[in-house]
């Protein structure tokens, strides 16, 4: 088998889609014992978007994907691979292929990837390998979740946090006759299953006897449960470490970062990570006040907003990190644009 020349990766387009319906902190105070001040001071969240009945993940993800493709200046038929990072698929067998059909990406293979709130970073790294190995040229990466499906709206520890949405990027192979230009500069991804119990959307079943001596389990997934203090401790310790490791692989220092885009979970986590890395607040992108924690979508939504408003420009160096259930965490360093 002939060895194919490695190719570089460029992230050339972004898109996002969020539901129109907003649930404010004041609205939540009518459901559970809380207040706008209590939520905002502890999380930084002011409102979150919620999918309405009949609104699917496929719909939101397809809109985000189409917007990313349009920004990239290519057509859906140019897409070779679609990766959907999600924990809330419309179909447990997978939703990526539905998106492939909906947007008309007729040549693309599509699959789902589940790594909870780390999903976008894990999918970014996964998609990059297909490009670097010369297998595919154009990869559409979508992070999307409708967590409102799985929130216990009587539990104020979790219902204040989560929102719905989707964000997408297009990754493209880069090459020239003389050299390969790789805009994905470094990454590091990690997992620790011994801490899995701190954040769950778990399956609960009961035994059902089919015939004498033959029983199976049948049930359903249960609402999200979380140990907030432990997740906070985990994030503020592990996220700076993994960003530093990714920077080391990229042969860069912290002061060479133009922007820090973390998973939008909690403003206190964003602030603590930035402080530990000595990254000034003006370099930290945050939009969780408007959307809450959108899981695998959050980094891509924040990236897209910053690109479209002109904050992030071609050539800017971005450090991004996801962290969450699994427990999983990971970081990637990349330059925006070709």
From TrEMBL:
<dbReference type="InterPro" id="IPR013747">
    <property type="entry name" value="ACP_syn_III_C"/>
</dbReference>
<dbReference type="GO" id="GO:0033818">
    <property type="term" value="F:beta-ketoacyl-acyl-carrier-protein synthase III activity"/>
</dbReference>
<keyword id="KW-0963">Cytoplasm</keyword>
<keyword id="KW-0808">Transferase</keyword>
<comment type="function">
    <text>Catalyzes the condensation reaction of fatty acid synthesis by the addition to an acyl acceptor of two carbons from malonyl-ACP. Catalyzes the first condensation reaction which initiates fatty acid synthesis and may therefore play a role in governing the total rate of fatty acid production. Possesses both acetoacetyl-ACP synthase and acetyl transacylase activities. Its substrate specificity determines the biosynthesis of branched-chain and/or straight-chain of fatty acids.</text>
</comment>
<dbReference type="InterPro" id="IPR016039">
    <property type="entry name" value="Thiolase-like"/>
</dbReference>
<comment type="pathway">
    <text>Lipid metabolism; fatty acid biosynthesis.</text>
</comment>
<keyword id="KW-0012">Acyltransferase</keyword>
<keyword id="KW-0511">Multifunctional enzyme</keyword>
<dbReference type="Pfam" id="PF08545">
    <property type="entry name" value="ACP_syn_III"/>
</dbReference>
<feature type="active site">
    <location>
        <position position="293"/>
    </location>
</feature>
<keyword id="KW-0444">Lipid biosynthesis</keyword>
<dbReference type="Pfam" id="PF08541">
    <property type="entry name" value="ACP_syn_III_C"/>
</dbReference>
<feature type="domain" description="Beta-ketoacyl-[acyl-carrier-protein] synthase III N-terminal">
    <location>
        <begin position="111"/>
        <end position="193"/>
    </location>
</feature>
<protein>
    <recommendedName>
        <fullName>Beta-ketoacyl-[acyl-carrier-protein] synthase III</fullName>
        <ecNumber>2.3.1.180</ecNumber>
    </recommendedName>
</protein>
<keyword id="KW-0276">Fatty acid metabolism</keyword>
<dbReference type="InterPro" id="IPR013751">
    <property type="entry name" value="ACP_syn_III_N"/>
</dbReference>
<feature type="region of interest" description="ACP-binding">
    <location>
        <begin position="264"/>
        <end position="268"/>
    </location>
</feature>
<dbReference type="InterPro" id="IPR004655">
    <property type="entry name" value="FabH"/>
</dbReference>
<keyword id="KW-0443">Lipid metabolism</keyword>
<keyword id="KW-0275">Fatty acid biosynthesis</keyword>
<feature type="domain" description="Beta-ketoacyl-[acyl-carrier-protein] synthase III C-terminal">
    <location>
        <begin position="248"/>
        <end position="336"/>
    </location>
</feature>
<comment type="similarity">
    <text>Belongs to the thiolase-like superfamily. FabH family.</text>
</comment>
<feature type="active site">
    <location>
        <position position="263"/>
    </location>
</feature>
<feature type="active site">
    <location>
        <position position="117"/>
    </location>
</feature>
<comment type="subunit">
    <text>Homodimer.</text>
</comment>
